Amino acid sequence: MNHAHAAHPRDLHGEHPPHLAHHYATPAQQFESGKLGMWVFLATEILMFGGLFCAYAVYRSNHPEIFAYAHRYLDRTLGGVNTLILICSSFTMALAVRNAQLDRRRATVVCLALTLLGGLGFLGIKYVEYRSKWEHGLLWGRSYAPKDHDHGSAASAGRTATPSAAPTPAQPAGATDAGAATVGQPAAAAPATASAVADPDTPRIAPSAIGPPGLALDPVGAHEEHAAREPRNVHLFFSCYFLMTGLHGLHVIVGLGLIGWIMARAAGGAFSSAYYTPVDFVGLYWHLVDLIWIFLFPLLYLIH
User: Fold this and answer.
1) What is the percent of the chain where pLDDT is above 90?
2) Could you tell me how far CA 193 lies from the centroid of its own chain?
3) Which architecture, in CATH terms, is 22-143+235-302?
4) Are 290 and 86 in contact (CB under 8 A)?
5) Upper half-sphere CA count for residue 135 (Cβ side, 13 Å)
6) How far apart (Å, rounded) are the C-alpha atoms in residues 86 and 70?
7) How far is CA 230 from CA 133, 196, 198, in A?
8) 49-63: per-residue pLDDT in tens?
9) With 0-12 CB in 10 A as exposed, 13-18 as middle and 19+ as buried, what is 118?
10) What's the CA gap between 211 and 204, in Å, rounded?
11) What is the b/e burial string over 35-53, where b = at least 16 CB atoms within 10 angstroms of the residue's CB?
């Protein structure tokens, strides 16, 4: 499809169009050259995020139990709302480009404003998610220090109700550590994790699902004890999460700055059917931001 701009009316009289750079022969040549450069730039962005997706695939294939365990601490509802917001903002961005092509200045400004509001809403929801992870210690690398939902309070009622304290085959149902000797079972046979649960200074989150053996789980002997332990290196998941969503968030911020810039110019009447290049190119960038999130959402929030 040819998206070349219509020739400027003054071209017929031999005058130079106001938006035509000196090294281009026609506005159509300038537009097509700029669009080619924009597609090359977007290709480099895809390559950058493609490397992150490859890293995600490698870590997930080597440590599936980590991702099956940790993805449950992401809010699917907030992620889904953000996905809907970005999809709607892509629609309003496409309308802004079309209205600029049709010389509808007011409609162009309104659509750009709606796109801007959508991006701000996305960042607001992402802030809520990041704040929750920060408060619960679900961070990257050495900063990973999970806390209970009451932020580590020793008075947590949920701490004594965790599956770690459930009876095991080595401890008959209904028996406690103190009463284990009365049924012929030494108290020392209780799982080591029971003492960790009883210690109010030990931060814990809910135990993980049992992953494939021999990958990254702590080396324990009994099958039941696997369920009482979280996988090691859970910080790998949250490192991927913050790196990928954080980089995407930076792209959203850049996109909002560009949208605000062209919205101000559109309000001043800078764009028309003869010249709408900035609106078109910013629209392409914003569609890429939307597309990347459509891949991030299922990978991080849904697949387990």
Assistant:
1) 48
2) 33
3) Up-down Bundle (1.20)
4) yes
5) 12
6) 25
7) 17, 13, 16
8) 999 999 999 999 999
9) buried
10) 19
11) beebeeebeeeeeebeebb
